[in-house]
Every structure is written in structure tokens, then in C-alpha cells.
Amino acid sequence: MCANSTTSSKEQRTRVFIASANAVLKQCGATAVEEFQIKFPFDNLLVDHLNNWVKFAVLSRAKNLAIELEPEDLRCCKHDRHVFPFELFDKQSMSRLEAIHLGFVSLKAQPNFSGFPNLKALDLRIVDVSSNDLQLVLSSCSNLERLSIVMCHPHDGIRVSLPRRQHLHVAHSCINKIHFISKNLRTFVYDGFMVPLDLSESLQLGHVEMKFPSLTLEHAITELPRAMLHAQNLNLSAGMTLKVFYLPEGVTKFSHLKYLQLRLYFSGQDNLLSLASFLKGAPLLEELDIHFLRRSFPLNDFEKLSIRSLPPCRHGHLKRVLITGFHGARGEIELAAHVADNSTRLQALVIDPVMRGVNRNMLTLTPEGRAMYWDLARKNAKKYLARRVAQGARFDVL
Question: What does R_g of the chain's alpha carbons equal in angstroms?
């Protein structure tokens, strides 16, 4: 059941939706349904009807339940939420549900809540829920495989064991600490501020995507490996302030990481070479993609600046490196040179001056000026890097 967006006034649109929904359900009668969805911007006029519709879903033996009530303007009714009616479910109906999607509702679990024993997927978006209620719900769903928490603000930390969970998504949520115990977790997606995180017991963690508005290199190198010890692929996007940083001896490393993608908005261009710490912190890394998302200025001969280097740190597993948004600046050259000099098994180094995933017009240049800018970046790449790439390895400047 979905809204008709062409109805003129908000109140009229809501009344039309209510009448249409009730007519549809009356026509369905006692027909069994596999999936039941309510999708309409929240309005107080809906309150008296929502529980009746959920009751219909229960009586219809629905396995998938979706209640999506996100309003058109969150500011107008941020304190008004429909309370999810746990009381309408008995043990039999709870055991039937396999997927629940809730948007803009309030979760207040009863003390005697017995859980959804066969629930495999739970999606919470803009849900008002306390840390205690969230933990109670999650700990009572022992077969949960997929969990998504978006724009929910329980504020306190969450610690829960979900042995069957395979996919976890947390975004734009105020959670002070995240500790999930799940040996079968395979995918983790996070978008938000850096908080204490513990997925160290997830032995099969294959793919991780993380996006931070702000992150220090020190946290990225020292905290993330402890949090995700078994991660194999990591996509990391962040606004990062780069400072001189040397990886201390004896710290936990990304001991299983094979693929690393960095998407960086950065400040501290002169310290780009410090990103080489990722190589030392991921000794088994085989593929490295670096996407610079900030304009830099190509190094010119008249600047007479030396190309700095770090002490040798051989990396025996890195095979392929891609660097985009390479503008031929001093720091970019130093980082790429360090990678080329120390990667003993390198098979391919690819340099692309074009920034990926950003508006090309951010360079504020004419098409002709942009072409000249990129040509100078390509010239610097060939001048400073070509001779450093190991014999037999492919060196491409796009």
C-alpha cells in the first residue's frame, strides 16, 4: 500500500490513503499474504488505523512486514511516532516473521518480550529506541542474519551476540560503542563518527565499508585493525588531516587484509607520504586503490623541491596499485615513489589524474585549462615514477 503523491492537500491525501487501504484490506478478506507493506508519510490521522493494518498482517500470516512512515519533513513531527504494537503478536505469529522493516516508528519492547525466533532480516530507519530496548530486541532474535540501523539514536553502547548474523549496516546513528559478537559476520558497512568498535571475534569478515566525516591517520592505522582484526577487504572514505606519523612497533596490524581502497578528502598535503603507514600496517595487502578527492597543484621544475623518501620497508605481496586524482604534487609523487620502490612483487601501477566520484568542474578551469593541468600531472608521473617501477611491471598513466 503506497501513497498517491498527486493528491493536493496533505490531510486530503492522508484520508484518501486511509480509505484506499481499508478498501483493499476489506477486499482481501482472510487471504494469506507473504509480504505486507505500509508506506506513507506519518500523520496523526493514521494512528487509529495503523494497528488495525498490522493486525491484518498478523492474521494473514505475513512473513515479511514493512512499516515505512518517514514524513516529508522530519522537523514537523520529530517527536510523534507510532509505537510498534508488539502486543498484537503471539508466539505463533512471531515465529512466522522472517523480515521486518521499520521506518519512523518507536520501539518499546515489553519486559516479557520473547523475540522473533525465525527473523532473518531487521531494518531500522529513523526509529526511536533506547539502548536497552534495542539490545532486548536483538538478543531475542537468535537467527538474525541481516541488521541495518540507520538514523537511530540510542546513544548508549550496544553489546549483543548474534551468532548467525552475516551483514551489519550502521549509518548516521548516535551509538557510543558498538560490540557485536558474531563469528559468521561477512559484511560490515559503517557511516558516522569514530566510536569504539569491536568486531574482533568476526572470523569471516570479508568486506568492510567505512565512511567518516573526520578521521586521523593514527586512528585509522592503530584503532581499526584492533576493531576488525580479520577484515579481508576494506573501503575507507574519510576527511583526513595528515600529520607525520610512524607506525609504532608491536601494534595490531591488518593481518588478513588483501584489498584496501582509500577515498580521501585531506588536509596536510605535504604529509601525504605518511599514508605509506598503511603498507606497513597491512603486510599481506595485494591490491591498493587510492582516490584523492582534493585539488592539488603539480610540482614545477622551478620550485626546486627535493623528493623525500622514507627508510626502505619492503612489501612482498602488493601486486596492483591504482591512484586517481593524481595531480603530480610533491606529496603524491613521494607516496607513489615509495610504493613503487618497496613493492617487490608489483605487477601494475596505474596513475589517473582525473578525480573519480566528484564534479570535474570543481577544478574551476576551462576545458582547455583542465587538459593542460592534467597533462602536467601526467608529465610528472612519467618523469618521477617510470624509472622506479620494477622491470616487467606495467606502468600506465591514463
Answer: 26
3-class state of residue 189 by DSSP: strand
Nine cell digits for residue 58: 498478523
Rounded Cα gap, residues 283 and 398, in angstroms: 28
**Matching residue, cell 608529465:** 379
| Confidence category of residue 6, pLDDT binned at 50, 70, 90 | very low
Report the C-alpha gap between 198 and 177 in whole angstroms.
8
**Contacts with 122 (C-beta within 8 Å, 6 or more apart), sequence order:** 99, 100, 137, 138, 141, 144, 146, 147, 148
Q: How far is the first Cα of the chain from the last one, in angstroms, to the nearest whole number?
A: 50
Would you give the DSSP letter of residue 169? E
pLDDT band of 7, cuts 50, 70, 90: very low
SS3 label, residue 192: coil
pLDDT of residue 118: 93
Per the structure block, which three cell numbers stand in for 215? 578521521
pLDDT tens profile 20-57: 888 888 877 666 778 889 899 888 888 889 988 888 88
Contacts of 292 (CB under 8 A, 6+ apart): 264, 266, 323, 324, 325, 326, 327, 332, 355
CA distance 142 to 14: 38
Number of Cβ within a 10 Å radius of residue 2? 12
Q: Which helix (H) or strand (E) holds 99?
A: strand 99-103
CA dihedral 188, 189, 193, 197 (to 10 degrees): 0
- Quote the cell numbers at residue 40: 506513507
* Inter-residue contact 323 to 261 (CB < 8 Å): no
Q: Where are the beta strands (DSSP E) in 155-272?
A: 158-161, 167-171, 178-181, 187-191, 197-198, 207-216, 233-241, 259-267
Helices 330-342 and 367-385 meet at what angle, rounded to 10? 40
The span from the CA of 9 to the CA of 43, in Å, is 13
Residue 287 has pLDDT above 60, yes or no: yes
Kindly state the helix (H) or strand (E) to which residue 14 belongs, with its residue range.
helix 10-28
**CB proximity list for 141: less than 8 A, separation 6 or greater:** 115, 116, 117, 119, 122, 162
